[in-house]
Amino acid sequence: MHWWPARTPFEVIVGAILTQSTAWVNVERAIANLRGARLLSPGAMGRVSAARLAGLVRPSGYFRQKAKKLKAFVRFLQRNYSGSLTRMFETPTAQLREQLLEVHGIGPETADSILLYAGEHPVFVVDAYTHRIFERHALVEGKPDYERVRAFVESSLPRDSALFNEFHALIVNTGKNWCRKGAPRCDGCPLRDFLPVNSPYFALTASSAMPLSGGPA
DNA sequence: TGCCAGGCCGGGT
DNA sequence: ACCCGGCATGGC
Q1: Which strand C bases fall within 7 angstroms of a protein CB?
Q2: Which of A127, A117, A149 is nearest to A13 (CA)?
């Protein structure tokens, strides 16, 4: 779907932080502000003040928190990789994931989004939609926490970043259209017709047949 | 008008 | 190991 609307890996990372619990349309304004201020590079963002940064990312909500998080990431990148994303992404996946989780403001979903969408590391991104869909379809054994869902998907599909990318994109679209919070349970969702389902392949097949409008791209 | 959006942190059990 | 309040703007 080529759905993550970013021009560079750094912009993907910025978007991943800014979109935390926030509608993408608000993130777009914030990123436009950053672009206008020529701050969409690790070096420039490292030099700007947190207060100035906060003003620019204001439309994305939680703006003081997010300014702090962006600063924390570029500081981490500078300290550990001399500001080079290329060098950062040369780090083995599991090791880099642990490092990212240490950074203030980067939790499991943001870390995995960075790994997959900015670095093309083969990890599956679990988000609110993934949780809701997999829980409603009872695809995961036991309590469907983040690591269980991730382990289930990653062990059910070939370890291929392009596939994880596409699969997650399809899930988010399915979620936006049919699995929003408060929506009638599975009402109109194309996945419903595939119950009982016990493999993500079924979800992938079903999702491919649905309209793909409404994405952030 | 109120609910929700592709979370995460820090402090409490 | 959970659980919860706080963080904040903009669209429907």
Answers
A1: 2, 7-11
A2: A117
